[in-house]
C-alpha cells in the first residue's frame, strides 16, 4: 500500500497519473496547501521541503521499514522501478525517458510555475515578469512540439513517466497564456492522453479533494 500526500496541482497529478495507470493500491492524504497544511510537523517528517507530493511505501522491495520519498520526479522514477513499468530498465530508451523527465523537473515545471504565479496569483502584475515567463514557457512548448513531431509519446513509442510528468503542466496551458493551436503536435498528444481512462480517474480526484479549485483564493490562502 502506498500512502500519497497530495494536492490538486500539476505536481500532485503526476503521481495519481502513475498510480491509476499502474493500478497500484494507495491511500490519499490531502494536504491543503492553501491552509498551510504542508508546514505541519507530521508532513515535514515525510517531506522536509514542505512541498507536495510525497509518498510512503509501506512495502518497499527488499526492505522491512516503510520508505518515505518527496520530489515528484524521484517518486515517478521509484514507482517505475518498483513496478517495472513506464521506464525501460536499461539502455538508450531509459536515458531518453529520464532526460525528458528531468527536462520537465528543471525547465517546464519551474518556468510554467513562475508563469502561473506572476500571471495569475501575484497581487502586483509586473509586465516584465509576465512577459519573461510567458515567452520562456512558449519556447519550452516549442521544444516539446518538435520532440512529438515524429513519435506518439514524449520518449518514443511507449507511454512513460515522461508523459506523466509533462502532461499536467500542459493541461494548465490556458493559465500560462499558451494556445495549443500554435503547437499542433503537443495538442494532438495532450488530446490523446486526456482520453486515457487512468487520466480521467486521476483528474476526477479534483472534485473529490478540492471542489473549490479555480475559485478566487482567500487572503489567508494567498
Average residue pLDDT: 94
Strand line-up of the largest beta sheet: 2-1-3-4
CATH architecture heading of the largest domain: Up-down Bundle
Structural class of the secondary elements? alpha+beta
Q: In angstroms, what is the radius of gyration?
A: 17 Å
| Helical coverage, percent range | 40-55%
What keyword list fits this structure?
222 residues; 4 strands; alpha+beta; 8 helices
Summed up:
The chain is an alpha+beta fold. The chain contains 8 helices and 4 strands; from the N terminus they run βαβαββαααααα. Helices cover 52% and strands 8% of the residues.
Describe the protein.
The chain has 8 helices and 4 strands. The chain starts with a strand and ends in a 13-residue tail after the last helix. It has 222 residues and is α+β, with helices and mostly antiparallel strands. The model has no long low-confidence stretch (mean pLDDT 94). Helix 1 packs across helix 6 (161-170), helix 1 (10-22) crosses helix 8 (197-209) and helix 4 runs antiparallel to helix 5. It has helices spanning 10-22, 41-44, 72-83, 91-121, 127-147, 161-170, 184-194, 197-209; strands spanning 2-6, 26-30, 54-57, 67-70. A 4-stranded mixed β-sheet has the order 2-1-3-4, with helices on one face. It folds into 2 domains: 2-86 and 201-209, Glutaredoxin, CATH 3.40.30; 91-196, Up-down Bundle (Glutathione S-transferase Yfyf (Class Pi), Chain A, domain 2). The radius of gyration is 17 Å and the shape is globular.
Amino acid at each position: 500500500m502506498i500512502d500519497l500526500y497530495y494536492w490538486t496541482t500539476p505536481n500532485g497529478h503526476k503521481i495519481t497519473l502513475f498510480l491509476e495507470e499502474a493500478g497500484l493500491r494507495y491511500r490519499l492524504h490531502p494536504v491543503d496547501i492553501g491552509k498551510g497544511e504542508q508546514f505541519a510537523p507530521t508532513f515535514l517528517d515525510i517531506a522536509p521541503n514542505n512541498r507536495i507530493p510525497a509518498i510512503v511505501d509501506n512495502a518497499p522491495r527488499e526492505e522491512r521499514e516503510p520508505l518515505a520519498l518527496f520530489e515528484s520526479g524521484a517518486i515517478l522514477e521509484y514507482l517505475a522501478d518498483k513496478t517495472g513499468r513506464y521506464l525501460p530498465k536499461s539502455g538508450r530508451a531509459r536515458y531518453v525517458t529520464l532526460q525528458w523527465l528531468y527536462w520537465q523537473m528543471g525547465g517546464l515545471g519551474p518556468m510554467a510555475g513562475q508563469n502561473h504565479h506572476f500571471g495569475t496569483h501575484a497581487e502586483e502584475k509586473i509586465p516584465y515578469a509576465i512577459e519573461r515567463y510567458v515567452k520562456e514557457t512558449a519556447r519550452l512548448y516549442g521544444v516539446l512540439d518538435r520532440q512529438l513531431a515524429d513519435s506518439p509519446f514524449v520518449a518514443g513509442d511507449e507511454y512513460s513517466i515522461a508523459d506523466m510528468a509533462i502532461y499536467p503542466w500542459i493541461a494548465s496551458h490556458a493559465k500560462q497564456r499558451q494556445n495549443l493551436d500554435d503547437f499542433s503536435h503537443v495538442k494532438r498528444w495532450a488530446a490523446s492522453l486526456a482520453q486515457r481512462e487512468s487520466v480521467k480517474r486521476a483528474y476526477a480526484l479534483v472534485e473529490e479533494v478540492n471542489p473549490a479549485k479555480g475559485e478566487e483564493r482567500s487572503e489567508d490562502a494567498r
